[in-house]
Amino acid sequence: MTASDSYFERAKAVIPGGVNSPVRSFQSVGGTPVFMARAQGAFLWDTSGREYIDCIGSWGPMILGHGNQQVIQAVQQQLELALSFGAPTEQETRLAEVICRMVPSVDLVRMVNSGTEASMSAIRLARGYTRRDYIIKFAGCYHGHVDALLVKAGSGALTAGVPDSGGVPKSFTRHTLIARYNDPEQVKSLFRRYGDEIAAVIVEPIAGNMGCVLPEPGFLSSLEDLCTHYGSLLIFDEVMTGFRVHPAGAQGLYGCRPDLTVFGKIIGGGLPVGAFGGRQDIMSHLAPEGSVYQAGTLSGNPVAMTAGLATLEQLQKEGVYAALTDRTHQLVTGLRLAAERHQIPFSASCVCGMFGLFFTQADKVTDYESVQSTDIGLFRSFFHYMLEAGIYLAPSPFESGFLSTAHDSEIVMRILEASDEAFGKLRKKKEKADNG
Ligand SMILES: *Cc1c(COP(=O)(O)O)cnc(C)c1O
Predict the structure, then answer these.
(1) If you take atom 8 of ligand 1, which residue's CA is the nearest one?
(2) CA 360, 366, 370, 371 torsion: positive or negative?
(3) Atom number of ligand 1 nearest to Cα 272
(4) What is the pLDDT of residues 341-354, one digit of tens each?
(5) DSSP 8-state class, residue 16
(6) Residue 193: other Cβ atoms inside 10 A
(7) Whose CA is nearest to atom 10 of ligand 1?
(8) CB-based contacts of 381: which residues, under 8 Å, 6+ apart?
(9) Which uninterrupted H or E stretch holds 210?
(10) What are the chain's domains?
(11) What is the Cα–Cα distance from 371 to 211, expressed in whole angstroms?
């Protein structure tokens, strides 16, 4: 029994499933989750002192790597001053100023405590502003565990969604319409049918919660056009992509201008933060100025704001995103070559610092359906071979991976060496199965 095994047993006695977020449980890969103790740069150490190269970065926030000196020092200084006031501070204005400057579509921004809270509030605001009820979301896009957004499948696109979580009344998802990612025609037909009742379209401009699925050329701009035409709001959920793929997020990368944007992850620099922002005339509908209620005891927490500020400051330096893009390309290209060498069906995608791995024969992964073609068994084995080799990948075939600015070329080489062996083992396993 490893240290993690015994920690997990203890955790299961007092925490449902032993974890505070389901994907951490290793349910989709099997085995015991690794209990972590310490992190620095691109590395993690578990409770037994074993070292791993981190390819998750706390699911995105740790874009500068762990233990970044500037972030740690800024947080330490803030700790001396105060943990929380529940009153306005300069720090929250400073972070808001940086976000508004870096993301041109954002005039005003409201801080919250998680991505879930941010997307929930952005949708309430969109409904309050437009005085409409329907929203369109895309199959395979995740916007946090908001009741009305826990709808994925719904193959008949022209019907309202059915909740895919227990505890969500059907009536709560009655106004959630589902469309296929990268399929503007479906969105168009939803608009034709429900046009003047649609408050908003919410989309991950790069889908990062079904692996990493890029928008096809024209997809995002067609959403902009449709929303403008029908007087609906376009909400970009940039909780993952914000400050990850470009200084102005996916909207900066693809030249879009959503009405509202949802943030999280990186803007907290590793502490719990979310935010939503956008056009001034929309944001002014929020309380206390407007009628749309939204509040939070710890919102704009000075420690979290300080960590976020120190993170965003460093991300504005010349060349940061170019270097991150190069590293991630190096990783993804190397993985593809290794898979090819060992004849494993595999495709990989990446955008500056985020990547997705798919064990599939499909030439192209563009939506929730093609993502389902992934061979889960192959992924599971690959995941465990990599973990044994000290590479900590996301424990699910449908999550994105993340590199940080602390991952240098040599560290990426170490990941690639491990992957070459892992793909080799997969090949042997497959040959055995084929012959046996
Ligand atoms: C992580 C994530 C969320 C949810 O954020 P939490 O802070 O976990 O509530 C929402 N949307 C996207 C795109 C995410 O990646």
Answers:
(1) 115
(2) positive
(3) 7
(4) 999 999 999 999 99
(5) G
(6) 12
(7) 143
(8) 425, 426, 429
(9) none
(10) 37-61+322-434 (3.90.1150.10), 69-315 (3.40.640.10)
(11) 8
Q: Residue 236 and residue 150: Cα distance in Å, rounded?
A: 17
The reported pTM is: 0.97
Written as six digits, the tokens of 302 are 């000075």
Q: How far is the CA of 432 from the centre of ligand 1 (A)?
A: 41
Residue 254 in tokens: 């693809």
Summarize pLDDT for 8-64 with one digit per residue, the tens. Answer: 999 999 999 999 999 999 999 999 999 999 999 999 999 999 999 999 999 999 999
**Atom 5 of ligand 1 has which residue's CA nearest to it?**
115
CA atoms within 13 A on the CB side of 356: 24
Q: Residue 419: which of 323, 324, 330 has the closest Cα?
A: 330
What is the edge-to-edge ordering of all strands in the sheet holding 354-358? 347-351, 354-358, 401-402
How far, in Å, CA of 337 to CA of 318, rounded?
31
Atom of ligand 1 lying closest to residue 264 CA: 7
HEC string of 247-281 equals CCHHHHHHCCCCCEEEECHHHHECECCEEEEECHH
SS3 call for 226: helix
Q: Which residues, in sequence order, are CB contacts of 16 under 8 Å at separation 6+? A: none
Return the structure tokens found at 403. 């590199």
Token pair listed for 193: 């049918």
Report the separation in Å between the CA atom of 237 and the middle of ligand 1, taken as the mean of its atom positions.
8
Active-site residue numbers? 142, 237, 265
Q: How far is the CA of 149 from the centre of ligand 1 (A)?
A: 12
Pocket residues: Cβ below 6 A from ligand 1? 114-116, 119, 142-144, 204, 208-209, 237, 239-240, 264, 274
Distance, in Å, from the CA atom of 70 to the CA atom of 405, rounded to the nearest integer, reads 14
Cα of 239 vs centre of ligand 1, distance in Å, is 5
